[in-house]
Amino acid sequence: MPKLPKLTFAYGTVEKALAAAYQIPEADRSSGFRSMIGNLQKLGALGAQARVGRGKALVYGVVEMHRLVLALEFSEMGLPPATVVGLLETYWESTLWPIIFSAARPIGLLPEEPEGKDTVLFLGGVGLRTDSLRGEKSVVPIIDRCSLDDLPAAMRQWMTTTPNARGLVVNLSARLRAFHSALADANLDDALAERQAARSSSAGGTGLGFADDVDQEKAPRGMDAERAAAYLGLGRTKFLDLVEAGRMPKPVRIEAELPRWDRLDLDAAFEDYKQKRHDPLEREREAIRRKLKEQQQAR
Questions:
Q1: What confidence tens digit (pLDDT) does each residue in 57-76 have?
Q2: For the segment 189-222, what is each residue's pLDDT rounded down to a tens digit?
């Protein structure tokens, strides 16, 4: 298995992302959808190392999240939960993980920069209803993949070589793209909620935070670090970290010891962030970078 980023999320964040990716209404999350996820996890969909129900909070790394997405995709195709978990247990290392890895490359997750075309997953020889009528356990004899561009030729081959000429097909890259875009949103929402709660506490429960110290309409053209940070609604330390990382503009030095940030530069940088906010791939990369940095600092 390739080296993976040490990235983890809490259940609430992952479940929120899955609900968004599968377009589950908020009213249905706490009933059927959450029960379906819980059942798959109890049966072992996440792997032996992540069995639930042992008295400690479960965290989701790269492997656990992708196993759960794959389990839900198999469920969407109509496979029974026991068959879904059996496929994951039997074929994860040899077949399914390489397919997941291939499907993640075009969306810039493994590795970080996008590479290649979308990957299509094929399950062949499926007989869900007739297997049960014959008293047989549902099986999937063929698990294969191809690129989206090669799908027509691959389908011709699969349909002439697969038992019973029946198969299930999904653009797995597209499904991972939907999940990771939703995960970036969910993670950002959670982070903003935590930050707002912290600001409310530090501001005596007003919820106003740093930005209230600056009247944006009367902000001067040049601002020191503290005022520039407040202009963006950030703390001084966080703002300077962003400057050092190249994600916020450098100051104009009126004198060697007199750095000032141009309000127009700050506005431009903020607008750039807003544009990236609408790019699902950039949001996901930013979420990964932020999470990795947090976990490195926690060590």
A1: 678 988 999 999 999 999 99
A2: 776 666 666 555 554 443 334 444 445 556 788 8
Per-residue pLDDT tens for 105-138?
888 765 556 678 999 999 987 665 566 566 666 5
Residues 137 and 88 sit within 8 Å (Cβ to Cβ) = no
Sheet of strand 119-124, all strands in order from the earlier edge strand to the far edge: 142-147, 119-124, 167-171
Q: Look up tokens 């390489």; give the residue.
A: 98
Decide if 109 contacts 180 (C-beta within 8 A).
Answer: yes
How many Å is the Cα radius of gyration of the chain? 24
Sequence length of the chain is 299
Half-sphere exposure of 112 toward its Cβ, with a 13 Å CA cutoff?
Answer: 10
Whether the predicted model's global pTM rises above the 0.85 cut? no
Q: Where do runs of H (alpha helix) occur along the chain?
A: 11-21, 26-28, 34-43, 62-76, 81-91, 97-104, 128-133, 151-161, 172-202, 225-231, 236-244, 263-277, 280-298
Two structure tokens written together for 207:
């919820």
CA distance 72 to 262: 49
- Alpha helices (H) along 54-150: 62-76, 81-91, 97-104, 128-133
- The partner residues of 222 in beta bridges, in order of sequence, read 262
**CB-side neighbour CA atoms (13 Å) of 157:** 10
Tell me the pLDDT band of 164, cut-offs 50, 70 and 90.
confident
Q: How far is CA 91 from CA 45, 76, 297, in A?
A: 12, 19, 36
